[in-house]
Amino acid sequence: MSWWQKTIQLPAFRRGCHLITHHVVRELNTLESIEIGLLHVFIQHTSASLSINENADPDVRVDMEMALNQIVPEDLEYIHTMEGSDDMPAHVKSSLLGSSVTIPVTKGGLAFGTWQGIYLCEHRNNAEGRSLVLTLTGS
Questions:
Q1: Global confidence as pTM
Q2: CB 46 within 8 A of CB 94
């Protein structure tokens, strides 16, 4: 069993859900050597989140953003508003979706289902790039 860990910086993304699988995979230099294992991806921020979802039709990402905005509207009477009207809703969305995903590794590749990929869900209007910690284990 071996362990590998790396922190990567994603570029800034506009608000919405973005497929980032390719950003993650290109950083996994040792992935092909893992016969069986796990990849854990953790985001080091509280106003963005990670999810696994549809990787083929970009309309799904647009609809996800629309649905999240309906579930967590910006016009509630939030107390935490020092960083703007999108900040507290971003924290709520991040808590709902989560800060990490774990993907099985099989025969040197990520064992996604046919239509799955990793989403960065950016909940802020003007966010900077985001940091991810990638932890790969296996043999």
A1: 0.97
A2: yes
